[in-house]
Amino acid sequence: MIEHFSSHGVDIAFIDVRPKAPDLGQPILLIHGFASNHRVNWVEPGWIKTLSETGRRVIALDNRGHGASQKLYAPADYRAERMARDAANLLAHLGIERADVMGYSMGARIAALLALAEPERVRALILGGIGDRLTRDSGLPEAIAEALEAPSLDGLSDPTQRLFRAFAERTKSDLTALAACVRGSRRRLTEAELTRIGQPALAAVGERDTVAGDAHKLAAMLPRGTAFEIPGRDHNLAVGDKAFKARALEFLASRR
């Protein structure tokens, strides 16, 4: 069941799934990628089922501008730090003092910023669908915002523009809100900032992912980083991969 709360006046939708096995007392917060939502990123690929069946309480939000959360149209409303604050506010709203945090793609960038801003709230990090691109660029380029504002998909010839526009249409997203998100959420993390992320962190990127960058290079910049290359998967197909799930569960079980 979708619930809602107010994050400094912005309506944020989320689900809160109780453990399906004896409760480990180790909740996990899931943060989805751009143009996705909690259902597409986490429910349909089986993550909610997988994690709850291991005894974890699983919380997954719709980022502002996405899914059932409030749509905003000023780029400044999508600063990555504000989206990280939404995640922290959700944990506070639920009375969760500390949680593991898993993000995918844009969600991984938000998760890293959450770990920086409130390290006491984050037990461990799983950064899916992002490698050293986290430090090499600030996020999606202006061309993606332009693709979202184009009159139709048919008028786009660039493959990357078509990919993002088609995905946004498939998830029935508000294209204008997403264009504002592209322009407002750009945030490159510096190597110095990464050295301050002291939690155990797993960087997981598909072997055929041409979007995310190198997981091994990202892991090397994190004090307690580990890399995992998801066999045979690209950026989209890596999300629900069985090997990724198995490695994530192993990481969560072994982290200290």
In short, what is this structure?
This protein has 256 residues and is an alpha/beta fold.
Helices and strands, with pairings:
Blueprint: E1 3-7, E2 10-17, E3 28-31, H1 38-43, H2 47-52, E4 58-61, H3 80-93, E5 99-104, H4 106-117, E6 122-128, H5 133-136, H6 142-149, H7 159-170, H8 175-184, H9 191-194, E7 201-206, H10 215-221, E8 225-230, H11 242-254
Parallel strand pairs: 3-4, 3-5, 5-6, 6-7, 7-8
Antiparallel strand pairs: 1-2, 2-4
Describe what you observe in this structure:
This protein is α/β, with parallel strands linked by helices and 256 residues long. Helices cover 38% and strands 18% of the residues. The protein has eleven helices and eight strands. It has helices spanning 38-43, 47-52, 80-93, 106-117, 133-136, 142-149, 159-170, 175-184, 191-194, 215-221, 242-254; strands at residues 3-7, 10-17, 28-31, 58-61, 99-104, 122-128, 201-206, 225-230. It has an eight-stranded mixed beta sheet, with helices on both faces. Strand 1 (3-7) and strand 2 (10-17) form a beta hairpin. The radius of gyration is 17 Å and the shape is globular. It starts with a strand and ends with a helix. The model has no long low-confidence stretch (mean pLDDT 97).
